[in-house]
Amino acid sequence: MKFSLTVALVILVILQGTESAPLVKPDLSAEIAKVTQYFQDMSKLFTTTSTELVEKVKAYELTSKAEAYLEEGKALLQQLEKVQEEMKPLAASIEEQLKPLSASLQAHIKPLAASLETQIEDLIKRVVTQTKALLPPQ
């Protein structure tokens, strides 16, 4: 009988302990606040990190585009220089062909220019003499 009383007492103590446990409420609101703050901090960190990453990718893309544009420009300049080098002999040839033509034109134009000059001088002299004749005597 002592044994059964002891067992009954142990069972009562266990039951009392399990029933009293829910009566003592742990501070869950503080734990929930901590977890909420943790997730908010993680969200902010993720947002700032992703924004920085996007900016870096954009900057890299702009740099890549600028480098590609410069390379295209260099290639075009090289092609232009090649064309210029190829055109030098042609330009020299045209110049050599035009020198005699230019000299011939100058030979024909020089007498015409001299004749025109004398005609204009004569015209000016005639205008001056006629103007003097029109002036009243002094």
Distance between the termini: 173 Å
Instruction: Kindly estimate the percentage of residues that lie in beta strands according to DSSP.
Output: under 5%
Radius of gyration: 54 Å
Question: The biggest beta sheet, please?
Answer: none
Characterization of this structure:
There is one protein chain. The protein has one domain (37-134). The chain has two helices and no strands. It has helices at 2-23, 28-134. The model has no long low-confidence stretch (mean pLDDT 82).
Record keyword descriptors for this entry:
138 residues, mainly alpha, 93% helix, 0% strand, rod-shaped
Helix-strand layout with pairing:
Elements: H1 2-23, H2 28-134
Question: Can I get a quick summary?
Answer:
With 138 residues, the protein is mostly helical. Helices cover 93% and strands 0% of the residues.
